[in-house]
Write a structure and sequence with these properties.
alpha/beta; TIM Barrel; 13 helices; pyridoxal phosphate; binds ligand LLP
Length: about 425
């Protein structure tokens, strides 16, 4: 997929770069980001939503963000969804146009709200009543009017192949439509002097393959827009439908084309607007995984191999849950290949272990691979989303580097942490020093 192929040395190549050379030059574990594919994924959204329907596409930073990624997203004409002061700061330092930034989060601090208003972000997506009042106060102090959307909980819970309409009142995110909290929130927002309500937001889940759940969410949201209009005379100008399109990780995953996703969602919104005789709102979507996920791979070096006769063969690599916590957290499944011997056929079943002191630190259970030897380079695919952004220093493992590859060029975009980085914030109080004899 993307710009991945096997070169004449039987090595895996990505973005025109030999992965074995990348591992040698930059070390492992190594995150490799295929720039062409990342851009292609941005463009698929831009074409399907922006060009076709005038909708706005904002990339979800939580998926993967850093200065280079923000720069590419900006160049591709997308906006940005940030959920913390840290993500906002990253966007600002990348000189991302702030009017294209949406600030999310269910517990923004007053400092974060102030920062967002000072940076003049495009929209603040208000999650709850507490935040609404606080934002009104902070905006008042700064003498500005905050442009906001209200996050609603539409009562649509999406699963891979189905959706159910229960349980969502019980969510830490947003104001539920079903029990009236949303309507009360809207009325309050319309009353407050320092906020300007632009519309509504919802997000029904992630790694979704069932497009009908979006049509269903659109229906619930537009019905609410109509209800609000009937009760207050207010017409929502904007409707943010969140992110969530699923990607291929493992056999059986069947991602839907972005165009189909756009057509189903926009079709539903337009149809319901027509039915209620409402203007079609400006639509916003905020994909993350489906842009960054397929564009990333992680390279590891094989180390210890432990064959427990009749039980299992453990092949340990030099990373694991520190750089990819998803298998340990969600039992996520990944595929991998031996990057330095792509011509060899799978010959044995092994399990890929990480190097953390934790039995759950397994990257892949039971995968058929060519016979592995220490020093082999293992490439795990679809690691562009929620890997680097969720990485950690458990066991004081330094976080890996990230390189951006394109047309045979490889540029470091995140440098590898070193041991000094690990103790950078450590402090020995003076009184401990004085007791040392
Ligand atoms: N918008 C909102 C409000 C969200 O909460 C999310 C993801 C997105 C957009 C982007 O969704 P995407 O297009 O990436 O599905 N750590 C988990 C995923 C958590 C998703 C959180 N919200 C994982 O590794 O699978």
């Amino acid at each position: 997929q993307g710009t991945m192929r096997v070169n004449d040395k039987n090595h895996l190549e990505i973005g025109g770069c030999d992965t074995v050379d990348l591992a040698r030059e930059f070390g492992t574990p190594l995150y490799v980001m295929d720039e062409a594919m990342f851009r292609q994924n941005c463009r698929a959204y831009y074409r399907a939503f922006t060009e076709a329907y005038g909708a706005e596409v904002i990339y979800a930073s939580k998926t993967l963000t850093n200065l280079a990624v923000c720069t590419i997203v900006e160049q591709e004409g997308l906006g940005l969804d940030v959920v913390s002061g840290g993500e906002l700061y990253t966007a600002a330092r990348a000189r991302f146009p702030m009017e294209r930034v949406y600030f999310h989060g269910n517990n923004k601090s007053p400092e974060e709200l102030r920062m967002a208003l000072e940076y003049k972000v495009g929209r603040i997506v208000v999650d709850n009543r507490y935040e609404l009042e606080m934002l009104n106060a902070v905006a008042g102090e700064l003498g500005v009017k905050a442009k906001i959307m209200l996050r609603l909980s539409p009562g649509v819970e999406a699963h891979t192949h189905e959706y159910i309409k229960t349980g969502q009142i019980d969510s830490k995110f947003g104001l539920a439509i079903e029990n009236g909290m949303a309507m009360t929130g809207v009325k309050r927002a319309l009353e407050l002097p320092n906020v300007q309500l632009k519309g509504f937001h919802c997000h029904i889940g992630s790694q979704i393959f069932e497009l009908q759940s979006y049509a269903h969410a659109a229906e619930v949201m537009m019905t609410f827009v109509n209800h609000v209009y009937q009760e207050t005379g207010y017409t929502a100008e904007e409707l943010n439908m969140g992110g969530g399109l699923g990607i291929y990780y493992y056999q059986g995953d069947q991602p839907r084309p972005v165009k189909e996703y756009a057509d189903v969602m926009m079709g539903a919104i337009r149809a319901i607007a027509a039915e209620f005789d409402l203007p079609v709102p400006k639509v916003i979507v905020e994909p993350g995984r489906s842009i960054a996920g397929p564009a990333g791979i992680t390279l590891y070096t094989v180390g210890a191999i432990k064959d427990i006769p009749g039980i299992r063969k453990y092949v340990a690599v030099d990373g694991g849950m520190g750089d990819n916590p998803r298998p340990a957290l969600y039992q996520s499944k990944y595929e991998a290949c031996v990057a330095n011997r792509m011509n060899e056929q799978p010959a044995e079943k092994v399990s890929i272990a990480g190097k953390c002191c934790e039995s759950g630190d397994m990257l892949i259970w039971d995968i058929e691979l060519p016979p592995l030897q220490p020093g082999d380079i293992l490439a795990v695919s679809s690691t562009g989303a929620y890997n680097y952004s969720m990485s950690m220093n458990y066991n004081r493992l330094p976080r890996p580097a990230m390189v951006l590859v394109n047309n045979g060029r490889a540029d470091l975009i995140v440098r590898r942490e070193d041991y000094a980085d690990l103790i950078r914030n450590d402090i020995i109080p003076e009184r401990l020093r004085s007791t040392v004899v």
